[in-house]
Structures are given as C-alpha cells and as structure tokens.
Amino acid sequence: MQKTILIVDDDMHIGDLLEEALGLEGYRVLRAWSGTEAVLLLEKSRPDLILLDLMLPGMSGEELLKKIEGIPVIIMSARSETEHKVKLLSEGASDYIAKPFAVSEVLARVGAILRLAALAAPESGQHELRVGELCLDAELMLAKKEDKEVALTRTEAAILNILMQNDGRPVGRNTILDRISESTPDCTERSLKQHVSNIRKKLETLDGRDHIEAVYGIGFRFLS
C-alpha cells in the first residue's frame, strides 16, 4: 500500500523540494503551510508520517506536535541545541533533522521510521495482494493468474510486492532496496536489475504480458 507523507512547512522551496523527492520514491504527499492548516487536514486524513517544521505562522510546530497522536513525526528545524532536541523527542517526535539537510538523509530517515512503524503494527493475517488479474502470495512466494501460478524467490516476491502496491506509479531503486533490506539483504543495486528481469519473465508466462516497465533515472513501474 502506498504510504502518505504530510509536509508541514511554510517554506515553499523546501516543501517543493521534499514533495518532488518523496513523489519520485513512490510516496503520496500532502502539504500544509501552517499548524492550523495541518490540524484541519488531519481531521480529514491520516498520513503515515509527518515532516514537521517548527517555525510556522500562527500555531508553532511544538504546539502542533502535542496535538498529534499515533503518527510518527520527524522534526525539521534550524535549531540544533541538544536540550531542544531531547525535549521534542521526549514529547513524542520520532526523529529530528537539523536544517539545512540533504534530501537523501530525509528519505533515509523516512524509510527507517516507516519500517519501524510496520514492524510495530499488528499482523493482519493477509498475505495475498491482488492487482488487476494478478495475485501475489508473499508468504508462499507465488504469483498467480486464474489457474496458473509461478514460483518466486524470496527477493523476487519482496520486490514484486512493493511494485504491485504502487501499481502504475514509478518506485525508485533506492526505495526498493531500502524497503527489502531487512528481509532480503542479498539484493544489491547491481543485482536489482537482474531480479526485476527474472520477475518480468516469470509474470509473462502467466498471461504473455510485460507487467514491469523501467523508468529512466528513477526505477521501475508495475503495470496491471
């Protein structure tokens, strides 16, 4: 399932930069330019993670943090005093990134926090993912269509699971590697292309179609 990130920052340049980078990694992005706007948005939507600036017009980031429950929050702030960081982390923030920051660091921290959240979530007991006419059983490592099925390796099943969850949307290579790093550490940037090629060939035996498209400069996209 595609993860949603809420960016709460009144700096349009930073917000646009993060929105573009997160979008390229396959995330859905919501924006709020003030604490009050974020509160109104959170009444209607529940993102998977919030990137929160502290210096906001009206309601400050510190005030907004106290109103957020059950959603991981990464603080983004130019303040770097240790006492200030400790205070916010003790008040519920999941992480703290000092400005100016590298976008690659933000993406890495977002991925890490979401992985921890997924590990803490209760098991749903649902191992099958169906997109269009194709079905993936991640536990049994099988891809199916009607009465046909093909066996996958653990790495192939993990990669296909991410791509199918983002049907029609490009997923970055680094995002794929980051999300499967714990369960399939044998997959590297060099071997990823070969794993995807193997998946394409196996899925093609089910219905004669190529279900995975390479997106230049980004990664791969699943096409149902």
Features:
single chain; 224 residues; alpha/beta; Rossmann fold; Arc Repressor Mutant, subunit A; 2 domains; 5-stranded parallel beta sheet; 4-stranded antiparallel beta sheet; 8 helices; 12 strands; elongated
Order of helical and strand elements = EHEHEHEHEHEEEEHEHHEE
The CATH class name of the largest domain reads Alpha Beta
What's the end-to-end separation, in Å? Answer: 15 Å
> Which CATH-level-2 architecture of the largest domain?
3-Layer(aba) Sandwich
> What is the approximate shape?
elongated
The value of Rg in angstroms is: 19 Å
What is the total tally of β strands? 12
CATH H-tier superfamily of the largest domain: Response regulator
Strands side by side in the biggest sheet? 2-1-3-4-5
Write the layout of secondary structure elements.
Blueprint: E1 4-8, H1 12-24, E2 28-32, H2 35-42, E3 49-53, H3 61-67, E4 73-77, H4 82-90, E5 95-98, H5 103-120, E6 128-131, E7 134-137, E8 142-145, E9 148-151, H6 154-165, E10 170-172, H7 173-180, H8 189-207, E11 212-215, E12 219-222
Parallel strand pairs: 1-2, 1-3, 3-4, 4-5
Antiparallel strand pairs: 6-7, 7-8, 8-9, 10-12, 11-12
Please, could you describe this protein's structure?
- The chain has 224 residues and is α/β, with parallel strands linked by helices.
- It has two domains: 4-120, Response regulator (Rossmann fold), CATH 3.40.50.2300; 128-222, Arc Repressor Mutant, subunit A (Orthogonal Bundle).
- It has helices at residues 12-24, 35-42, 61-67, 82-90, 103-120, 154-165, 173-180, 189-207; strands at 4-8, 28-32, 49-53, 73-77, 95-98, 128-131, 134-137, 142-145, 148-151, 170-172, 212-215, 219-222.
- The strands form three sheets. A five-stranded parallel sheet has the order 2-1-3-4-5, sandwiched between helices. Strands 6-7-8-9 form a four-stranded antiparallel sheet, with helices on one face. A three-stranded antiparallel sheet has the order 10-12-11.
- Helix 3 links the parallel strand 3 (49-53) and strand 4 (73-77).
- Helix 2 runs parallel beside helix 3 (61-67), helix 6 (154-165) packs across helix 7 and helix 6 packs across helix 8.
- 29% of the residues are buried.
- The mean pLDDT is 87.
